[in-house]
Amino acid sequence: MDRSTGETSTSQPTTLRVSAESFVHLRRAHLDESGVKPIFEEHAQDGLLPAEKLRTVLDLLDLCPRDDELNRLVKTCAADENFLSVDELLALCVLLSVQSPSAPVSPSRKFLTQRRPYMESGYLGHEEAIVSYIAKLQEHKKKCERESRYTEAQAAAGRLHELKTTEAERRCQDMLERHRAELKEVDQAFLEERTQLNRMWDLRIQHFEADFEKQVEKLKTQQFQESQEFWLEQGRRRPVRPKYSRDLLNKRKIEEYLAKQGEYTRAHAVKEAADSMETAEMQTTIAAFEAELRLKEHKLVNKHQQEMEAMIQRGARGRAELEIQRVEETERRGQRFKNVVSELQNLQKLEVVHLENFLESQAQAGKRDPLPESSFRRHATIHNF
Asked: In this model, does residue 174 exceed pLDDT 50?
């Protein structure tokens, strides 16, 4: 078939024309028909893209595959490796775009039933473009078989085989990359959560320490004011005269009586004796007051020390309780992280088993070649653990 006219030619086998509309859901937005066709038309010759210009076109589309990978996929998509139609170029872009690393997994794909579209469609590819392309290749192969064009049917079968093999390898690699991304995402989320948790507890402890310091300063202020009031009160109570004894009072009366009688010599002698007695009694009164003052001061100091020790003990208990709560919450969140990882790994292992079973059932039905025995499952198990 001439690709520009659609007529059958005897010089080369008929090729499959895949409509560009089947590729509207490409993984990369710029790889749809509106993005690829203008570049194709700019470099095409008579409606076909020469193979020597393919690398230039792919560079313009931000696709940079390795040479061996590009050659393998060109054989898969194109009937003639020297020229590509726009539909074959679109199919090639689809396969090259899905070879890129998987995008971060969205929450909507966190469930196993949403991970296995191939169980419902029967096709491994979950991109509509790949499924549509495989279906059209199969339809083309059957049509060639009905029309006895066995050479073209064999070429289509070979392209189907290459495409399915490529898609199976891509699907397995995509799954493993997604598993790694999921575990990395969970681990990163745990690290961020642990950082936030540590920051939160650091702030909580800092607030506790600041509040404790305020309480200590408040207690110190109260104790200082209490001490000031104590000394002011004791200063007011300090004795300025002795507590007169009966003997001293009698001598003062005798002194007064002798002075009235004119016996000044005897009155002077009695006065000196009374003054000496008053001085002694004043010293005794002050000594008693100071002894009482020291006792009261000692009691006040002990009271302040006990209050401060009680405050410090309450602060130590509060700090210890916060540390215990911090350790408990850290352990609780660590255990929750382990549970999440364990659940995710079990889900991933189940997905690996389902995909392997699907591939094995496809191989038993003759729809694809079997994968190496348990290699994918072993690789996935090694990766998960």
From this structure: yes
Q: What is the pLDDT of residues 196-238, one digit of tens each?
A: 999 999 999 999 999 999 999 999 999 999 999 999 998 888 8
The structure's pTM equals 0.51
Q: What is the DSSP letter of 88?
A: H
The residues, ordered by sequence, that sit 6+ positions from 49 with a Cβ below 8 Å of its Cβ are 40, 43, 57, 83, 84, 85, 86, 89
d(Cα 308, Cα 180) in Å, to the nearest integer? 57
Tokens of 145: 């078989």
Residue with tokens 């364990």, as numbered in its chain: 342
Report the C-alpha gap between 232 and 223 in whole angstroms. Answer: 14
Per-residue CA distances from 148 to 44, 141, 142 (Å): 32, 10, 10
Spell 336-354 as b/e; 16+ CB within 10 A means b.
Answer: ebeeebeebbebbbebbee
pLDDT digits (tens, 9 = 90+) for 342-351: 988 888 888 8
Give tens-digit pLDDT for 58-82: 888 778 788 877 887 787 777 777 8
Is residue 141 a contact partner of residue 161, using CB atoms and an 8 Å limit?
Answer: no
**Residues in CB range of 370: below 8 A, 6 or more apart:** 359, 360, 363
Distance between CA atoms of residues 309 and 257, nearest Å: 63
End-to-end CA distance of the chain: give it in Å, rounded. 53
CB-based burial of residue 279 (10 Å sphere; 0-12 exposed, 13-18 middle, 19+ buried)?
A: exposed
Q: Where are the beta strands (DSSP E) in the chain?
A: 49-50, 83-84
Over 70: is that where the pLDDT of 118 sits?
A: no
In the chain, count H helices and then E strands. Answer: 10, 2
The one-character DSSP state at 369 is P
Q: How confident is the model at residue 365 (pLDDT cuts 50, 70, 90)?
A: low
Single-letter code of the amino acid located at 356: E
Alpha carbon distance 121, 127 (integer Å)? 11
